[in-house]
Each structure stands twice: as C-alpha cells, then as structure tokens.
## 1
Amino acid sequence: MSANNEGFIHIDDLDQHAADTHRPTIAERQRVDYREIAKEVGRLGEGKSYFIRTHGCQMNEHDTEIMSGMLEEMGYKAAREMLDADFILYNTCAVRENAEDKVWGNLGSLKPLKARNPNLIIGLCGCMAQEEVVRDRIRTTHPHVDLVFGTHNIHVLPGLVEEAHHSKETIFEVWDAAHEGTIENLPRVRKDDVRAWVNIQYGCNKFCTYCIVPFTRGEERSRLPQDVIEEIQQLAADGYKEITLLGQNVNDYGIDLQDVDFADLLEMAAQVEGIERIRFTTSNPWNFTDKLIDTIARHKKIPNYIHLPVQSGSSQVLRRMKRGYTREEYLDLVNRIKTRIPDVALTTDIIVGFPGETEEQFQETVTLIEEVRYEGAYTFVYSPRAGTPATRLPDDVSEADKKQRLYRLNDVQDKISLEQNQKLIGQVLEVLVEGESKTNADVLQARTESNKLVHIVGSKELIGQLIHVKVTEAKTWYLRGEILPQGVGV
Ligand code: 5AD
Ligand code: SF4
C-alpha cells in the first residue's frame, strides 16, 4: 500500500489504508513545536507592512490569522490597504472555478505595483497553490509572483519570505503531504475579540467525487485533545466567549488516534469555564452518531444548531457524488436529531447541476428542503475541478439549466427561511452580542443560538455579553430585536 506520486492514497484503497495504518495512541502521536522553528526567525519585517487577501472557507480565514501571527513576530505590521503593503499574500480557494478566476484577475492587476516598489513581495498560498496547473500558469504568465507555498507548510512562511527577499526567481515550495503529526504553538492574530476559531482537524479522507479538498488539504489529521483544550482554556482566559471548532469533517475527529472521538472532545470543551458557546463546522451526515447527538443535546453551551451538508436530495445523485448515504438515511438522521433536540436549527450545502442530474432528481432536492425546513442553505452550481473523479462523468446539464435550478432552489429556500424567522417574532431569545453592525454603526449585531443574525439598538458595552432580546421583526437573512431589561429572560 502506498500513496501515489502526489502523496495521496487512491480512493479505492482507502479502507485498506485505514486498516494498514497503525493508529497512534495519544501518547505516541508526534507533534512539532513552532517555538523551535521560531528560534531561527529573524526580524526581517521591521519597518515593513503586510496585507493578506483571504478567499474561501473558515479554515483559510484561520490560516490567515496564523500567518499574520508569524509575520508580526517577524516585525511586519498589518497594512490598511493592499496598495501600501510590502508583502501582499493571496490565501486562495480552489473549491469552485469562480473563486479561482477572481484570484487570477487580482494577481494580474498587481503587476504595475512591482514597477513602483521593486522590493514588493507578492505571494500565493492556500488550496490553489496545491494544484500543478496553477503553478504552471504562474511560471508561464505570472512571473511577477515571488512566492508560492501550499496548505501543508504555512509554518515555514518566515523562512520563505526571507528567501523570496533575496531571490530573483519565483520560489515554489509546495509540499505533497503534511508534516507527520501536527504543528503546535503557532502564533495567531485573531480578527475578533469575542469569537475565535480553533482547528481540531486538518484534511479530508472522503473524496466526494466533485471535491478538490482531499487533494489540496490531504489526509485527515486530528490535533491532540490536550492541545485543543489548552488553546480553548487560553481563549477563555483572554476573554473570548464563543469558539468554533474547525475541521473539514469534524465528526471524524479522532479517527487517526486510538482513544478519542468528536463527542469526547466536545464534552471536554464544554467543561472549560468562561466559554459560553461551542460551535463546530463542518459536520457530515455519514458518521453523525447518537453519542454525538446526545452530547449536543446535554450541553447548554453547545448551541442546538447543526450545519449538515446534504448536497442533493436524490439518492442516485448522492451515489454518483459518493456521499455514502441515501436520501432516506439522511432524512432518518434528521429525524433522530429532531427527536432528541426538538428546537434544533439546521442549515445545509447543496450543489445543483451535478453531472447527470435530471429535472426529477433536482425536484427531489426541492422536496427534501421542504421536508427538512432548513433555516438556511448555501447553494452552488456544480463546478468541475480538474483531477476530481466527477470530471470523468459528462458535464451534461446545460449552463442555463444549472442557473435556473439554482434560482428555483433559492426561491424555495428563501421562503422557508423567512417563514422560520417569522415564527420567532415575539419570542425572547438569548443572543451573544458580537459587535457593531457592518452596515450601520448605530446598530449592534448579535447572534442567536441558532446562528441567526439579530440587529439591536444598544450600548457598545454589551459587546461580548449574552443578553436576552425580544424578536420584533423578521427578514429572510436577519432578525430585528429589542433588548429586555436586565434580569428578564427566558
Ligand atoms: N462545485 C460546486 N460546489 C462545490 N462544493 C464543493 N466542491 C464543489 C464543486 N466542485 C460545495 C459543497 C461543499 C461546499 C463547501 O462547497 O456544497 O459542501
Ligand atoms: Fe469535500 Fe466531501 Fe471532504 Fe467535504 S467531505 S471536504 S465535500 S470531499
């Protein structure tokens, strides 16, 4: 059994690979301390500034926080504007083509900046960097990019920046696979003072046929529970109120370790004093155990909110996507969750126009969302990704049909979202005040347990607090509420 020359295990060999791989106990697991690496890091960034443009998922957002931490330890300061920065870094997403197109457009427009500031360093990292075709295109048409590195080696960024400083050639440093074990004690500059992301697991073993993530992020690796819990304890000590446990497949947490699973980790996290809410994303339908449902149900600190991507309502499409469950099995899971957690809020991800999706199969997705009644859905048109198994299927749904299906699905879901929100009018809900609204500084934005945005008018001193509000108005995407006098609650 071996990985192919890109460092990935072939999809057909996965079960055998899992059986062959010795799962380390917690005590055996290797880990690398970033502090050891940092001893070699100089202060090259003194007097210079950096700007990171982040595309894609929360994992990328959090990687940006880590890279900002490393750069600031080198002396760099955050630039307000990209145009002012001495180091511009694109942290990219490869999940859909339009995310990539944006990056290509932006990279091209940076070329003139090089003429203005010859010392400017331009870098590209994240999921696009893991793609060979992207690296080839940079070599041939974007030589003004100085540095390309991938998802597996962000911890060597300081050394790479130094190298880029001295090199006339583009530096490509992309690893095929991750370092054995996890890298710990990474510095972080967190964007928010109330809510924080905590990585619990990297990579994905699932190989859904449309998805590039297993290729760009590699095999699943779990952080040791004690490293995760120590990070959460530190966040509590720093005054954070909410954490989101991050992974591509959080309910697979621990499959590469002997003696811990995701429910155990949630249980441990719920014991940390000071943290009021523990969220997690993304969970998947195939191994959502009763133990996990029970853990969520038992802890007040774990919101009754689950993002549970279904992708399609048709069992035939799900089989072609290799999702590992049928429509019936998914609905059965939803019923088990709703029985144990009656007020649960569910959201989902859906792809329309997957190869071979017929109008009838699309209709099955519509009836599924009507049956589940999600609070919201992230909906996407299928985008073929080079190297993924689905590209071997004929991409036979016309662009017009794909777009039309997306509009029709969004129409149905928007109505459901509005109705779900209208049901809340008059109810008193506990919300965490996150900060000023992004669109109106006189309004505060808060979040319900079910992850809904609530706009309220109140003092900025409430930021970071859990308070009770009465819902006064419902829109498709948010609620309006009024603050109840202190002590009045549910
Ligand atoms: N095309 C369209 N959507 C995709 N997603 C992942 N890969 C693709 C693709 N090739 C969507 C899935 C996933 C979300 C993060 O992005 O719905 O859950
Ligand atoms: Fe992609 Fe499927 Fe892994 Fe999610 S579970 S990252 S959709 S392969």
## 2
Amino acid sequence: MIVVLKHGINQGNKDSIRSFLESKGFTVREIIGEHDTVFGAVGNLVIDHREVEVLDGVSRVIPISKPYKLASRELKKEDTIVKVGNVRIGGNRVAVIAGPCAVESREQMFQAAKAVRESGAVMLRGGAFKPRTSPYSFQGMGEEGLKILKDAGETYSLPVVTEIVGTDYTDMMRDYVDVFQIGARNMQNFELLKSVGRTGKPVLLKRGLSATIEEWLMAAEYLMAHGTDDVILCERGIRTFETYTRNTLDLSAIPVVKKLSHLPVIVDPSHATGIRAKVPPMALAAVAAGADGIVVEVHPHPEKALSDGPQSLYPEGFESLMRDIQALSPVVGKEIERLPEDQPPEVRAINLSQDKSNRRIAFQGVHGAYSEKAIYSYFGEDVSSLPAPSFRDVFEKVLTGEAEYGVVPVENSLAGTIYENIDLLLRYPDIWITGEYRLRIKHNLIGLPGSRIEDIKEVYSHPQGLMQCSDFLEKHKKIKGVPFYDTAGAVKFIAEEKDSSKAAIAGVEAAKVHGMRILKEGLETNSRNYTKFYVLARTENAVFPNFNRAAVVFSTPDKPGALLKCLNVLADKKINMNKLESRPIPGKPWQYMFFLSLDIPVQSLFDEAVEDLKEYADDIRVLGKYRFEKG
Ligand code: PEP
Ligand code: MN
C-alpha cells in the first residue's frame, strides 16, 4: 500500500508511522516526490487500512493494485533516474552503453573502450561470464576479464556493466562492477535476483526470452524488495515464430512499461536482431519509442570476435549511430546523456557542485514554462529552476548572484527573434552568453479536466505561442486567440478561472503542473518548431575553452560600404555568420547596432577578427564565446 504523508509532517510522526508498519511486518520505503512524500509499505500481509489511516501525519492510504509494488508507477509517479557515478539513466535523456559482447583480451577491451568513449558512450559493457547455448563455446575470461573491464572503464572514465551468472559470484564481483547485469536466461533465477538485490547496487535487468511484461516487472520487484532501488529494465527481444532475426524486438514494451513502472527502460538492439545491419535502425526506433537508452555491442574487430561478432558494430558504425541518436533525441524531447568531461563547462560545474544551493537557474515565466524545460534538458533535473516575472528579472537575478545562470529564449524557428532579450544583452555588459540550447516546441491546446474542444471560445497564450499556431487558429475561427504574458502562466490562469470555454496553448509540462487536460496535441503550424535559448552567466562564471561559436555586437559609421567592410573581415578569417540583426540604439534615433552570431572554426582567428574589426566598427563588444554541438 501507499501511505501518503501529510505535508509538513514532523520527524516524530514519521518515525512512529514507520515503526508501526514495520511492527506489522511490512518493508517500508520512503519516496519523496514532487508533490507528496509517501511510504511504500510492501509485504504479503493483510491489514485493515483504517488502522494506518488514523495514525498522526497520515494523509491517506492507497492500495497498490498491481502484483509488483515497489516497481509500480502507482507507488511512484515520477520517473526514477538511476545514477551510476556521474551517469544518469532515465528522465529526459538517452544514455548509450556500448562495448563488446565478451571481454577477450586487454588489448581488445581497451580498444573498444577508447572507441565507444570517443563516440559518446557513457558506460562500458563486456561479459566476463558468458551464458552460451553450447558448452563448447567461449565461456568468458572470468575474474581476469572483470579486472580488464574495470581497468578499461577507469582508464576511459566509463562506469562498467557486466553479467552475473550465479549467486556464488556476487561477493567476488561486487567491487569490480558498477552495474550488475542479469541476463535474459537468468531473469527468473530468483535466488540470483535476491543475492544481487542485496548488494544495493544498480542492476540492468534483461527481459527473459519468453517472459511477459508482468513477469519481467516481478523480477524487478525481487531485486527491489531485497535492497536495490536502482533497476534499469532492458528489452532485448523475445522468442516468437519468426526466425529471420535472432529474436523479435518488442518495442511496444517500452510505452507499456513506462505506463506501468517508474523504472527506466533501455533497449538492446544487438541481441534482439542478431544482425549488424539491423542494429542501427532498431536502436533509433527504440529512441523514437521513448527508450531511456540503448545497450549495443561494439567490437574493434567483429570478424575476430569470440562471441556475437555478426551482430557487433564496427567502431565507425557505432559513431555514425551516435550521430543519428544525437540528432533524433531532441525530436522526442530528450537529450543524449554525456559524461561530465563532455558537458558544457557550466553544466559540468553545476553538476559537480556539492552544494545544491549553488544550482539555481533563472527563467522567465511560471513552473511548466518551455524555458524551464530547456533548463532541465540542458543542466539536468538536479538543478533548481527559479521563476522570474520578466526577462529583465532573469538578467537581474544572474547579475546579483541570486541565480548562477539564466536561460532565455532568443529566437523561434517559426516566429523569429525575441528582440527583448537581444536588447537586454546589449544593456547588461556584465552578463555573458555561455551556452546555446535548442528545444523542440510542441504546443498543445490545454483545457479544464472536463472541457471539450467544441466548447472553447477563447485561447490564452504568449503572442509567440499564438503566432506559432496561426494555422490552427485560422481553421478554428470561433476560437479567439488572447495574448497572455507567458504560456505556462496562461495555463495557470485558466486553471484559476475554471471556465470551460477558456483554454491555453502551452507545453505538456504546464498542463501537468496545473492538473489540466490536453485537448489537442501538436498545434504548431509546422512540426519543425524549435526555440533557441541562450544560457546567461556573470562574467566570472563564463568559461570558454573549445569555443566554436560567438556573439558580437557593433555599430558602424553611417557611410557606404561600412557594414560590408566588417563582414569582409569575418569572411577573411573563415568565420561564418549564422545570424545578423540590426537593433535601434536607444537615444540615437535611426542609428543601429548590429548583432551577429558567428561560427568560429579556428579560435585564434576570432581574436584576430575582433582586432581587425576595430578599424571599421565602433563600440565592438563580444557578448559570449561558447561551444555549440550541432545536432
Ligand atoms: C549479453 O548482453 O551479452 C547477453 C548475453 O544478453 P542476453 O542475456 O540478453 O542474451
Ligand atoms: Mn552478446
């Protein structure tokens, strides 16, 4: 059962509720959610719920209807994010685990680790104990293999995952592995599940060859009931009558499990298909279907592999797959997970900061805003988002140190530039652009829980939101667009108004925050709708090693060819201009500043260009230098 605790419950009451449940024989887990804190009480016991409901500090008791309890979404609404060192699996990211089927030698493992790390994998796989169909096939290197795997992982800062095949190995393997893998053949080896669960370590749990989803989740329950909270489910194909592929990849398991469980789900396209050429398309399909990651076999020389060579990718094939995953992830509202070393410096600094109170990022709007989603996608869910009423307030919060960074939209691919933020950048010389992020914007028509699209007469949203949905508004003439100061704020407004003829246009997050209903999805005129955000920092927080992009502003004398001369300077230094805006100079009617966003292939040439520009331009200022990974 789920025991929902009252808000602001004191520790004494909490302790006595826990002792009461434990005295009745329940195992108790505390789960701190976004809205509520609950105790999950599990055990094979019958108790009258009213006995718990009357305890001080209990808000209500909800029975869990599913046979799996700790793994169930009923118990925990929020997605579980499994942390393995600095790697996160779950939430809004796609984590890629890669490596050979088996550890074969030091040289092979180090080559594989280097290759997958360079292409962006965040965890290393490699079996030291191989459960092979034939007793005559290569059985793995055993403990020697574990040593090699661990060394390779440490050398390339990749946590490692490897399969355990029997309870005898639990203690020996514990210190070598970051994540235990339970293979498909052992999914229902309950003694093994108990033994591995007791280590409390993260576990990658493969789906059995002919296991139903419920049996799979019950296996996860075994692990959790014995002590680990960190289970990563892995769909790896099931047995069907089809023999062309090694197994049949059940992609529909992903959305099914996502609904039933809070645990992250990843996909193994290698064992699912057994054929190298089929691995990349199935990996991409998994990401499109909502998988939290993939685990894929990569071998430096697949033709020489001691096991699963025909399904192992060559390093080049893996690199190409990684590029595709990187491009696809934002389309489904996700980001590829990166190791801290590969994150933008400000993200790395925030994530590695021990002090959580130093992780405040300001945005304009209320909770559920697109800017807030951009914050979580860029920095990760561990930061605290700080709402600000206006864009100017975001700049102020960054300037005064109330926030470490700020995130503001600067351009939308359908509606164009958000001039206010460009102008604020010009007005705040101590604020720098330290990063850039592009978020896919999917607008929704959001109404009260009981309302229907036919009832809607007015729709509230930010003017940009209304503009991006112009075709929808054109088609539904009886719905009047009403400009509002922000999209998520519009959802809050209609929630308060409680008038079923009013709706808002905003993101799903805003509907969730305010308990509203999505009446229609994907309202934007063109589905390729992206907003570009700048990450803002105070000068001392702006670090720019490896920058490949910069923003500058300058004015030119009012004479023929003045701007052309400046642009020639950039062209001479191989600098590509990806944006040019002119903005009026306050107090100087009909005079303009030029704002430029630039691609910098060679860093030293940028500094030279800035020097050279001084000859032709006035008031030149660099607004930011940062690294931008093109998807
Ligand atoms: C493996 O990952 O190497 C493996 C043996 O997988 P499965 O258990 O899914 O067959
Ligand atoms: Mn294999």
